[in-house]
Amino acid sequence: MQIWQLPIIDGAVPIVAYAIAVALFVIVLVRRWRRRPLLWAVVGAIVGAGLAVAAVAFVDNAHLFGSAPLPGFVVLWAAPGLAAAGFACGGMVGARVWRRVVSALAVVSVLLAAIIGVNAAFGLNPTLGTLLGVPTYAAIDLPAAPPTDGAAPAVPLSQSFVPPAGMPEKGSRGTQDIPATASGFRARPAGIYLPPAALVANAPALPLVVMMMGHPGNPDPTAISDVLDAFAARNHGLAPIVIVADQVGADISDTACADSAAYGRARTYITQDVVAWATAHLNIVRDPAYWTIAGYSNGGGCALSFGADYPGIWKNILDVSGEPFPGSEQVANITKTVFGGDSAAFEASKPVNILAAAPAGTYAGMTAVFTAGANDAAYIAHADGVAAAARKVGMTVTRYDIPGVGHTGDALKLGLVAGFTVLYPVLGLSVSGAG
Prior knowledge:
By secondary structure, this protein is an alpha/beta fold. It is built from 14 helices and ten strands. The chain has two domains: about 5-120, no CATH class; about 135-425, Alpha/Beta hydrolase fold, catalytic domain (Rossmann fold), CATH 3.40.50. The model has no long low-confidence stretch (mean pLDDT about 90).
């Protein structure tokens, strides 16, 4: 395992980081304190906690991560972390050399522990590489054999595919640079997942999922790969092939999944470049009934937008805690920057309006799944609204709230589980008749 693949949400890394931070801070704390260094330490702790609260308030007021405020757990981790760091800095005053060294190490360790804690609470960067924006996976080896003709299977794959001896227990994950031939969009390498059934000789053509993550975020395949590995284990190694595509680009902008001079042609990249690359390089069923456009948060809003606009490409939509429309987190900026101040054009781009304007029967045969965290009131309202609009135009709609979670944490993983539980029978992958 490369260092960038170290898991930092679960496993030993967080536990070790927290233990080291506590041990070093205890050493800093346990000493015979004199008045002057104690005063500096207390002042340092107060300043540190104040900086944490002020920083969170600034981010919220400046809408640096959208209009929604940062979750409360950010302050609950940041304030104690910076307070402990400030206390250790102040404790260096008048201390012996070895205590100053320990205090310096304590500062680093408590800040690192706070970062890991905040990240674990968000639950979106599972590895060290994803947290730092470093590619976690190497380029994936695609099967050497050319893709099949991609014809839809005469009978469901769950009935026709017999797992051969030696089939891997888990799928393969990696990255691929998808050329922006039509769009010129500056995308980061896409994450790729090939399920066990794709890794055998004479592999069948499989369904395709194009997934998009949130903003800011990484096109990392870890979360969806983990979920689909579990589904594949129960269904003869069958799962969709997945492309985790980058709709925000190398500059990590909220592109509103539109084509614009400001942020590039993100829409063309997903709907033309990614689609063309998948068709040319992956052993997938070409029938749109087997294609799913999926996304989380920012990516969820984009998934609904693409599904509404291109029902001839995707017949299935999986929207996990999705925004109600692309660009919803910074409406004024998107109106000005992406749509050139044309609020009518922005309004027309919203999925609910695309759906309402389509001719009757446009969405016949489409399946849509909308999930939200049960503790995520704003996004429950968003999901209810778009689900009602999708149901009104004839889509088969499932709405599901994930118990006990908000917008982060397990909202992504459990939203994907709920979504594929519905989609597995639709895609002909469910051996038991349910996901």
